[in-house]
Amino acid sequence: MGRKIAREETMKLLFQMELNKDFSDGVIELYLHENDFADDEVDYITDAVNIIRENLETIDKIIDNNIKGWKLHRLAKVDLSVLRIAIYELKFRDDIPIQVSINEAIEICKKYSTDESSKFINGVLGSFVRTGMDKNE
C-alpha cells in the first residue's frame, strides 16, 4: 500500500506508545505482528519508530522550539505523533522531499485530528523549515 499507509500506521503506533508511555521493542513487535503490512511498510514503520525513539529528546526539542505559545505536554497526542514523524522525515530522511513530508503530515491531521490541528501542524513545520532545520536543535 505504500508510504502513505506506513505513515498513518507509524502515527497510530507512536500514539499508542505515547499514551501508554511504553516505547519498548515489544510494543513495536506486537504491533507489527498483529497487522498485515507489506515489507516496504514494515521497513518504514520500524525505521521511523526506531529513529524517533533514539532521537526523541532532539525531535521534541525541535517541536518545542517551534510551537509558539504552547507546551509540548499540552499537545494532542495525535498532533504530537504527526509532528514527530514529520520532523523525523525532514531531519533524517534525504529521500523524501520537504513538501511531501509537510503535506502528508497535514493530510494525516485532517483524517485523525481537527482542521485547526492541520493548520497548527503546517505552521509548526513551516517555522521549522524557515528557521533552518539544522539550527533547531
What would you note in describing this structure?
With 137 residues, the chain is mainly alpha-helical. The chain is 74% helix and 0% strand. The protein contains seven helices and no strands. It has helices spanning 3-20, 25-34, 39-54, 56-66, 77-92, 98-112, 115-130. The chain is globular and about 40 Å long.
Features of the shown structure:
mainly alpha, globular
Radius of gyration (Å): 14 Å
Structural class: mainly alpha
CA-CA gap between termini: 33 Å
Query: How many β-strand stretches?
Result: 0
The overall pLDDT average reads 93
How are the SSEs placed, and which strands pair?
Layout: H1 3-20, H2 25-34, H3 39-54, H4 56-66, H5 77-92, H6 98-112, H7 115-130
Brief overview:
With 137 residues, the chain is mainly α. Helix content is 74%, strand content 0%.
